[in-house]
Amino acid sequence: MIRRAFTVVELLIAMAVLAIAAAIAFPVYRSAVAKSRETTCINTLHQLHSAIEIYRANYGGEGVYGGVTEMRLPPYLIWMIRDLGLTHAAMRCCVPGRIHPWSGFTVFYPSPDMGANGDWKGWAKYCSEYRDQAILIGDFNHDPNKDLIDSPFVTHRIIGLYVGGQVKVKTKFGQPQMRLWWND
Question: Do 79 and 122 form a contact (C-beta atoms < 8 A)?
Fold first, then answer.
């Protein structure tokens, strides 16, 4: 006798095998996509450092450590992007729907709008002490605990750009918005 169709048991076994394969493949795919986005953002931070160094060279601040004015850091990233003729897309982190819609980068050096209450002297002391290891910009887009950024009791995963051009991914407890979190 020749069978022309699958039995119910055979169909159920085939569906179970496909479900197990999908359960294994989807998390691997998701982590690969997340890693590729992180790598893209690391490359963007490298490009951002190059742009900052070009900006500093244009204004005579290369090789200087100390205050924002002495180092000739761009007061706002948006000004530097405009001054160098770059587009916003060139400096955008690729994780959709995160902290800041256009980039997600947090600048750790003080900007002019901080005024008299700003941390100008604190930055100069910090940067003079840590030099190339001073944190410049952080990318908070990849932190699974971004809603608890102020909490010292959760693990954070943040990508940081240092004055010397190094880009490091840090995963640890504490408060990453504090400069000294980056230097341990």
Answer: no
Domains identified in the chain, total number: 1
Domain assignment present for 86: yes
Is 72 inside any structural domain?
yes
Entry pTM? 0.73
pLDDT band at 55 (very low <50, low <70, confident <90, very high): confident
Q: What is the distance between the terminal CA atoms of the chain, rounded to a whole angstrom?
A: 76
142: burial class by Cβ within 10 Å (0-12, 13-18, 19+)?
Answer: buried
Q: Is residue 1 part of a domain?
A: no
Domain containing 37: what range? Answer: 9-182
